């Protein structure tokens, strides 16, 4: 699953905001019991692993000039929650990029 979020911040600013706020990702996972790990693979790709309700979801966030692309590997057994995850990425991802 891929979700693109447009921005007009420039790559450096997006990277800064993601680094400063990546710890907030767990707050946006329904159920409140998520473990989130992030790691930067190069300047423009943040890998993430989310563990919740006995499932692990892996993905990455790629920073481009005018958009941020969230790519999530969703297990087949969780395909029914795809619309909910996509909606959460759109709303919460946009908030993560906003100025505090």
Written overview of the protein:
This is Putative polyhydroxyalkanoic acid system protein (PHA_gran_rgn). The protein is built from two helices and five strands; from the N terminus they run βαββββα. Strands 1-5-4-3-2 form a five-stranded antiparallel sheet. It is an alpha+beta fold and 100 residues long. The mean pLDDT is 88. It has one domain (2-97): TATA-Binding Protein.
Index terms:
alpha+beta, TATA-Binding Protein, five-stranded antiparallel β-sheet, globular, Putative polyhydroxyalkanoic acid system protein (PHA_gran_rgn)
* CATH architecture grouping: 2-Layer Sandwich
Please provide the count of β strands. 5
Give start-end ranges of low-pLDDT stretches.
Answer: none
How many structural domains can be distinguished in the coordinates? 1
- Class from secondary-structure proportions: alpha+beta
- Terminal Cα separation, in Å? 28 Å
Provide the succession of SSEs: EHEEEEH
CATH level 1 class label: Alpha Beta
Main β-sheet, spatial strand arrangement: 1-5-4-3-2
- Determine the number of helices (DSSP H or I, runs of at least 4 residues): 2
Which word captures the global form?
globular
**DSSP helix fraction:** 25-40%
* CATH topology annotation: TATA-Binding Protein
DSSP strand (E) fraction?
35-45%
**Mean model confidence by pLDDT:** 88
């Amino acid at each position: 699953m891929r979700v693109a979020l447009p921005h007009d911040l420039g790559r450096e600013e997006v990277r800064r905001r993601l680094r400063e706020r990546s710890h907030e990702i767990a707050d946006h996972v329904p159920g409140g019991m998520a473990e989130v790990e992030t790691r930067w693979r190069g300047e423009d790709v943040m890998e993430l692993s989310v563990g919740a309700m006995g499932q692990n979801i892996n993905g990455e966030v790629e920073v481009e000039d005018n958009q941020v692309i969230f790519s999530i590997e969703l297990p087949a057994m969780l395909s029914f929650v795809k619309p909910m995850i996509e909606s959460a990425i759109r709303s919460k991802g946009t908030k993560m990029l906003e100025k505090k």
